[in-house]
Amino acid sequence: MQKTNIKQHIVNVASKLFYTQGYNATGINEIIAKSEIAKATLYHHFKSKEDICIAYLEQRHKIFLGALKEFTDKANKGRPQLICIFDYLRNSYREGEFHGCWAIKTLSELPPQNQKILTVIQRQKKELLLFLGEVVGDNIANISIAETEKISGGIYLLYESAITETHLHKNDWPIHLAKSLAPSLFAEAQLVN
C-alpha cells in the first residue's frame, strides 16, 4: 500500500469504529489491529488518537457537506430546496448504520478542556449553518441578512434536533416532524420558483 493509501486506510478503519462504538470505547490498539498495521506505522502517520479523530471528523464532514450540496442542487427551487436537508437525513437514516451526528457524538465523549477537537466541530457546524444560509438566500427573494440568519438558524436547529432524536428513538418520526415544522419558518416569505 502506498503511504497516502495507508493513512487513508487508518482513517477509514478508525472512522467506522469511532462512529459505531464511540471515541472513548475505541482504543489505539484496536485501530492498529483492525487496520492490520504495525504500531510504528500508525504513529508514523498520526501523533495521537486525537489526530486520528480530527482526520475522521474532517473526512465525515467533507463527505457529508459534498453529498448534501449535491442533493440540494437536484431539488427544485423554492420550498423543496429549503427543506431537502430533512429528505437527505431521512435517506441517511434508512440506509442503515445510522448512529446520529458523528460530531456531536464525539463531542459528548470529550472532556471540556479538549479545545482542539471542539474547535474543529464548531467550525464544521458553522460551515453547515453558512451553507443553509446560502440555500435560504438562493430560494427566498428580497430577504435581509437578519431574516436569512433567522430562517437558516431555525432549519439548522430543527435538523440538529431531528438527527439526535432519530438516533435516540431509533425511528425517523423526528425527521418527519422537523420537516413539517420547517416551512413555518418561511411561511410569509416570497419563494423563488
Automatic annotation (TrEMBL):
<dbReference type="Pfam" id="PF00440">
    <property type="entry name" value="TetR_N"/>
</dbReference>
<keyword id="KW-0805">Transcription regulation</keyword>
<keyword id="KW-0804">Transcription</keyword>
<dbReference type="InterPro" id="IPR001647">
    <property type="entry name" value="HTH_TetR"/>
</dbReference>
<dbReference type="InterPro" id="IPR009057">
    <property type="entry name" value="Homeodomain-like_sf"/>
</dbReference>
<keyword id="KW-0238">DNA-binding</keyword>
<feature type="DNA-binding region" description="H-T-H motif">
    <location>
        <begin position="27"/>
        <end position="46"/>
    </location>
</feature>
<protein>
    <submittedName>
        <fullName>TetR/AcrR family transcriptional regulator</fullName>
    </submittedName>
</protein>
<feature type="domain" description="HTH tetR-type">
    <location>
        <begin position="4"/>
        <end position="64"/>
    </location>
</feature>
